[in-house]
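anyone else get weird line breaks when pasting these?? whatever heres mine. first is seq + tokens for prot A
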Amino acid sequence: MSLSQPFTPPSATPLRRRLMLALLLSAGAVSAQAADITVSAAASLTNAFKEIAQAYEKEHAGDKVLLNFAASDALVQQIGKGAPVDVFASADQEAMDKADGMKLLQAGTRKNFVSNSVVLIAPLSSTLGLKSLADLQLASVSRVTLGNPASVPIGRYAKHALEQAKLWAAVEPKAIYGTSVRQSLDYVARGEVDAGFVYATDVAVQKDKVKVVVTVPTETPVTYPIAAIASGPQQAGGRQFIAFVLAPAGQAILGKYGFGRP
């Protein structure tokens, strides 16, 4: 070998360089496609969305779905303050309307994806014998839980139903407000209140501790909207997650947990 010609080590041969470059490009493509999708959803969706997230991740290798559950209005406030959220799923139209009014939503992504119903429940061990909304007027009923109507969809549904039945004036002094529907469910399950308003789908979560007194008629259908957030860091991923929720696989999981078609 001439001393004027530099030695080229095996690791720097053209073939090896091409192979290394191909591997790096391949790894970069996978990394670019993978996404952490943040979903803020109403508390009543907790169990169903946990399973939907697992199913979505299996279908979209590398993606992770990060879930945040709370009362719908609280979630709107978080998003409005800049929380990095890609998808918002609300338990009523009013909370989603608030998000829309604050210009938080990606245009054209809002869809109704599921329905529910409101029920009045009591502790399984209750001996009060409640049979109707009117029974909430009884002197033996001293504590009734519902979400705060100012910030929790189940509270708005319950208050409106009680107003329609001309019972709100009698029930309001007995009201114990929950910060979410799941908190109200827990109050009833622990026997800390005499009765409470939750969604029909929540009953299954504590079926060994609560019982349904009556299904509550609501003037406004209980429909849940979902939308992508305009400022979300994973906008394409957010839209893809919404599509999965609306698709047969997502709808089947929601149906498994008692939700109905929108």
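and prot B, same format (seq, then tokens)
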Amino acid sequence: MQALDIDVIALTEILVPHGHRVKFGTIDVPGIHYNLSGVGRISINSGPAIPLSPHLLIIVPPNTPFMIEVDGGSGPPKLISKDCWTHQEGILRVAAPNERPEIVQVCGFFNASFGQSVRLFGELREPVIEQFEPADKIDLKLREAMDELLQQEVGVGAMTASLLKQIVVSLVRRSLRSSQRWTERFSILADRQVTRAFADMVARPGAAHSVQSLAHSAGLSRSAFMARFSAIFGQSPMAILRDLRMRQAAVDLTTTTMPIDVVALNAGYESRSSFVRAFRKAYKRDPSDYRRTAGERNARQDV
């Protein structure tokens, strides 16, 4: 799972008292919702209500609105207005003032990719629903991630991403023994031979890989490897390799001062001109322009 990359966008704490509800609009990344305590219901994209109970984990697809409700009191549940939403050190807290919450939920909005190529939840079309147990300690990992953000220590981003990665890994492990449809997104993890070859591509994108060498790494014939790889990724091995090489080049351009020729060699290109053409096709700009723009953006963020 070293190739699993997590980018944490935001963490949110949702506290809904009896007789209240909260509504969220569309967010362009998936969200992990873990119900720490309490019972209620969640409706995703105006669909049927899903009962909420302690230790229930739900992944809401990108760009999908949802609503959480808790019964109680007279009349329909009252909406917790956005005037009651507060921000503190990167954490959004949604709560009704002076009310004891029934539902206590921690949400992490994130992007997850495997080897920078396979977006695990980016194309999700229906929610993922899994019931965990206290022994799985998902709640502790989320609380620790929130504490990291609040303390704002050195390396907070890496630590928060690492904690959320542990949760996604727990979900991935669960997927290997689940029959639910969403687990198809993790089919690569169940194919150990293809995973072996893909891990080699991720670890050494600039190496002189070929379909034949990757098939040998997987312990498969060329035709069997091509068929199984393409079935999992929806693309050929060489197409995925080009993506990995471009991502490697983008990282080198934004985090090092190495010359363009060296960046090209590190990405597996002996010719600078062929590298520039490939990079321009992937990122719609020349490598030097990409580096300059990234540097200007980072400078603005440091101000």
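btw re prot B: Residues 156-175 form the longest helix (20 residues). Residues 73 and 271 are 71 Å apart (CA to CA).
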